[in-house]
Amino acid sequence: MPQTSTSHHLFNSLRSRIGAVCVSLSDSASVQKTFPSNHEKFVDHQYVSNTHDELIHVVTSVLQKAAKEHGLPSISASFSIDQSHVWSGAIGLANIETVRTAKVTDVYRTGSVSKAITAFIAARLFDQGVIDLDEPINQYLGNYPSGDRITARMLGSHTAGIRHYQYSFGIWPPNEFFMNRQFNTVEESLRIFAQDDLLFEPGTGFNYSSYGYSLLSFVLEEASGKSFSQLVNAELVDWLQLTHTRLDTVTLDNRDQVQYYEAKGDKWRLARPVNLSSKLAGGGIVSNPTELVRIGLLLDDERYISRQAREILITPTAKDRDAGALAGYGLGWITNEKKNLLNGDKSVTSHSHAGSSIGADSNLVVIPDFGIAVAVQINRTPQSDGTSAESLSDKIVQLILSA
What we know:
Elements: H1 6-28, E1 33-34, E2 43-47, H2 53-70, E3 74-81, E4 84-95, E5 100-101, E6 108-109, H3 113-127, H4 138-141, H5 152-156, H6 186-189, H7 210-224, H8 228-240, E7 246-247, E8 261-264, E9 267-270, H9 280-283, E10 285-287, H10 289-296, H11 307-314, E11 334-338, E12 348-357, E13 360-367, E14 372-378, H12 389-402
C-alpha cells in the first residue's frame, strides 16, 4: 500500500510554499518590455471554404480583441464544420523582438493536448493487438515498481497513483514544471519519479499526472519494440501526412516554432527556457491548429480507430467523481455536456483536452454531432485573466453553432 505520514505531508507542504516563493521571486526579477502598438492588426488567413465568410470575419474580430485586451503576442486558430476543414488564421506576432508576424503554419507547444495524441497511439496499438490496456504493465516492463498493480488504462486515465510535478530544490526555479534538463530516452526520464511512493492504491483514486503519461509511453515502446518518436510518426504523422507535428526535441530544427512569452496587459518578457524531454507523451508534442483539427477529427473516424477503442478514450473513468475540474476524463480525452454553447437549455457533447506549457497555451475540442473540431494556440503562458485557449475555443464553437 502507498505509504503516507503526517511528517511527509508537512514536508511536502513546506517545500511547496518555499518553492512557490522562489518561483515568484524569479519571475519578479525578469525585465519586462512594452508591446508594440496594434500588434493584433497582423493577420494571416488560410481559407478552405468561401461559404462561411461572415463567421470567419466574426471569429477573426474576437481573436484580435482578445490579443489586444489581454496581452497575447499571437493567437493561431483553426476549425472544421461537418467534418471538413473550413479556416485557419493567425493573429499578432510570432516574435515580438523581430516583429515577425504569426503565420498559419507556425508551430506551438501543445502542452497537455499531447495526452490526447498519446491516447490515439495507445488506441491504435490496442486495435492492432499489440497491447492489452488492462493487463499489469509488468507484462511489458518486467519489474517496474508496483507495475504488477498498474495498467496502461490506469496510466492514461490518471488513476494509477503516479504523482505529478512537484517542487524540487535540485533545479531552478524549484519546480519540475520548469525543468531544463535533457533526457535522451523515455526510460531515462522515468528516474524522476519511479522510486516515489504511489499516492494511492492503483485504481482507487484520481490524480492528474504528466509523469503517468511518460510511463505509459514507455509501456507503448516496450510493447511495440519502437521508440515513442517512431510510434508518433508511424501511427499518426504518416497516417495523416502531417508536416508540423512532432516531438519537441533539441536535436531537431525548430525554426518554425514561435517565440514563447510571459505576458500580461501591455507588458511582456521572454519565457524561461525549458526542455520537454522529461514529459514528451504528456506535454512535449508541438503542432499547429490546422493539424490539431485534423487530429481531432480522427476521434470519429473508424478507419483510424475502432468504435471500441473510441469508447475507451471518451468514457469517463469510474473515479470521475474524484477528478474535480477534470470530471469526464476518459483516456486522454475529457467528455463534457456543455450547455453554454447553444441557446436555451440544450447541451452538446464535447471531447477535449487543454494544454499549458511554459510560454504556450493550447486547446483542442471536438463536437462529433456537428462534425466540429476547433483548435486554438497562444504563445503566452496561461494567466488568470479570463482568457485562454480553452475559452476562445468555446467561443468559436458557440459562434459556429449560432451561425
